[in-house]
């Protein structure tokens, strides 16, 4: 059942006796290089310098800030060690199948995240909707890099600036440096009436955060304006020459964070109270497994962590050589991403266990801050209590975060650049990079205002998360049922000469679409007006938020209508509509010689497989044919 080309079919075996070779055999006996037999009129597409550059780039893209500060808190909030069960199930049934599918479609077609839908032009709006979402991700992700860079610079002070209270913060502040605390201060902190200097520093000095944004978001913090500019300079420098520059940088971007993680792991596990924190992180809360919210959190974490359904994986894979072994790379990245999340959780909660120990409390939950606060409050608060050279570990931690941010945002930004360059083939890449980086920078200035964290959560939900989930469903349907699982498996056989397992066939066609659809239904049923730290947004922003979502999802209708309206003029409107669901004539490998072989391979395959009649026969044939 896992055969992609029906080679066990008796009719096929009989045809072999009459032919000297099959199109598939012909292809593998006469494989061309990427530079061979390319259409001279087609714009030249870059390729990775070697296969390892692609793997390292995927690792740098998928292993990012989400593994360090998002996964540990999400796991803790949703059952601790028990969260690993729904997370791993979701990874196997949703994350890995989508990751492999996007790799396949990108490498097979050598097309970016929009043009890859040449297999069904009416669905091209998926790519444009993901383009909008990934643009928004790039703008707010860079603002987190700006915060990280500010903390990195502050780590070079002789006394860490968040380790002590300022006079203007009053009696409600407790020094994060435990050596300056009194027993009464510790008791007060245990009661929860006071806040640490690390929290005051983040909220009052770094963010200058407002209580609400009813009167606007304020003006940007000039220090964060500068660090945001440096963040975008770093990103632009990595992608300036496309994969020729980002591929070389990927070795450092992917490997260096693990060197730092190893150092921090050793340090964190040698701190007093560290093992209490790790056990608190890993201890299962089994009752959480029956909570639908936990499964929702697992799916969103998989999307966020692996960077699936944003077009970035398709983009990176499109620069591969045609026969690259992406099945191996998919397994490596998915496994490494999970292990990195676990490693980050152990490091973070080892340090938080020490923070609880130094604060004379057994309630580790009380020292944990949500989201970015975990990286910018809890960790700085803990590191301020280190007896020896806290500046060194602070520099290492925030440098690691910044490098992780560059690696991920370089992939995100490259997706935006690739879509633009694929659309405007005569545009100079350096000009596209420069203009787009400036636009992203200007857009990102709103995140470094006093109301910036309000806007980050707002854009993340309405412009990214909701849009990505909806478009993911259409992406799966378009690939599995419009183009067809059978055709995908046929293309894999032609490209890699491997048969697709029943696991991928069933996930692509049934399990993964149902899983993601259930998550969307849960989001809609359980929807409550968005809040930030318990503070609601102005009423008009909710209306604008849904309009932002409509713009992203509405790309399906806009580009669907465009494909329908611009079909062959000799066809009627109903025929144009049906025609828009069919692949374009040049769909297939980019190299002209490979494309001709592929077209012959498809023709022969259709002849051998025959026409299936009836709904269930077609349903079965699409999955197992």
Automatic annotation (TrEMBL):
Keywords: Amino-acid transport, Disulfide bond, Glycoprotein, Ion transport, Membrane, Metal-binding, Sodium, Sodium transport, Symport, Transmembrane, Transmembrane helix, Transport. One of its GO terms (molecular function) is L-amino acid transmembrane transporter activity. Residues 17-34 have a biased composition (Polar residues). One of its GO terms (cellular component) is plasma membrane. Disulfide bonds join 165-173. InterPro entries: Na/ntran_symport (IPR000175), SNS_sf (IPR037272). Na(+) binds at residues 63, 67, 305, 404. It is found in: Membrane. GO terms for biological process: amino acid import across plasma membrane. Belongs to the sodium:neurotransmitter symporter (SNF) (TC 2.A.22) family. Unusual broad substrate spectrum amino acid:sodium cotransporter that promotes absorption of the D isomers of essential amino acids. Neutral amino acids are the preferred substrates, especially methionine and phenylalanine. This is Transporter. It comes from Stomoxys calcitrans (Stable fly). The gene is 106087555.
